[in-house]
Fold these 2 entries.
Entry 1:
Amino acid sequence: MTEFHFTLHATDGAARTGRIDTPRGEIRTPAFMPVGTAATVKAMLPESVRETGADILLGNTYHLMLRPGAERVARLGGLHRFMNWDRPILTDSGGFQVMSLAELRKLDEDGVTFRSHIDGSKHRLSPETSMEIQRLLGSDIVMAFDECPALPADRERIASSMRLSMRWAARSRAAFGDRPGHALFGIQQGGLERDLRAESAEALREIGFEGYAIGGLAVGEGQEAMFGCLDYAPGMLPEDKPRYLMGVGKPDDIVGAVKRGVDMMDCVLPSRSGRTGQAWTRRGQVNIKNARHADDPRPLDEHCTCPACRSYSRAYLHHVFRAGEMISGMLLTWHNLHYFQEIMAGMRAAISEGRFAAWEADFHATRAEGDIEPL
Ligand SMILES: [Zn+2]
């Protein structure tokens, strides 16, 4: 049986490329993980998600524990079989979404009690229950249970929250147990405070994980502050383990994060934007709602090989969005996921060949041109 293993192939500045081997297949890094919140990447068949180039999906523990329930998923053969995706799945711990979505949260040293945003039912999550739920789901990469304060928060609040998360990280490690082929990732916290990030990294190293996430960013601090933190935070984590930046981001966030040493990312942006008529292209954002597209026979991006660009015009994409047809979300989501994976593939090749800086300059120059002129 293949063990969970990370191999670093090349570095270019702080940027890295490599491969994570798992029993369910390899994950090429840097990797972008589409988000399959409720056991589906919305508007996409799993085989279509795979066709865009995704090696791994993310599932949300909070949503799945409430509906359809982790025990039910386990009885039905686990999340992979349930949603028909046989490649790696990473699940978050539920902690972040309890804080952002649940009602009547009550946090104590042991865990958090909350009410479901769906039906008001009462639930409890702790490091131990989060590990159990993620085991029932059959997740390949399990995230330690943590608490993430929204920024801005004062230093004292960030420090005490980070230290609680480190105690929970140790309890997550103990509860995870010995599961060959599966990985547990610890999550660095500490807000934008460099010394707290260092303290957190040290605590995580001491516990020991198969991978390390950078948590507590992309929570409203802005790109400049995030990049400022990423200038040092990844370098505090073990070099020989994957580094995962949670919840990022827009194309230029992703490129900036990889430049600073991040190996994995996830975001709802490409799928969510696809359902609201927003396309991300090499030349920036396109709002397909705009009247300028109504008579435009050209594709979204003439260089893109996705089905939306290969076979449909801007005029058609505009029409189906305005008509509220489901194919609108399907085609734009496909295009967006395809484009995000193309960015990842481009960066992997550039890092391997030691030309990341040139690739990045070209990425920004093409975006700066803006969308093609209206007809
Ligand atoms: Zn396309």
Entry 2:
Amino acid sequence: MEEKIFICKNCRKEVSLNAVGTRNRNHCPYCLWSSHVDKKTGDRENFCHGLMEPIGLTFKDEGIDKYGEKRQGEIMVVHKCQICGKVSKNRIAGDDNPEVILAICEEINRKEVKRQLFGK
Ligand SMILES: [Zn+2]
Ligand SMILES: [Zn+2]
């Protein structure tokens, strides 16, 4: 299989589109920024092409367990398009930078705690 690469528009690193375990890669593993190219996952049919900022993390909804508690699924990155404002959730890939994922998590928590303590 021919190796497909793209240059991340945010950090300018070269990203392989078909590394192991990265089917439908839609974001950069180094900075987690994405590009608005899909209408539906993997179709590459959106022509917006805006840069999508990783604005938060959430967990895949796995329903309710037998005790009525919400089951916590795998980590999803929440992306927001800087041009059209579309928000989408994406699975993280096996080679995404864990430090960057943690940094996003800390940044979100810090912002929320600050908002509650000091108002906006
Ligand atoms: Zn990048
Ligand atoms: Zn867009």
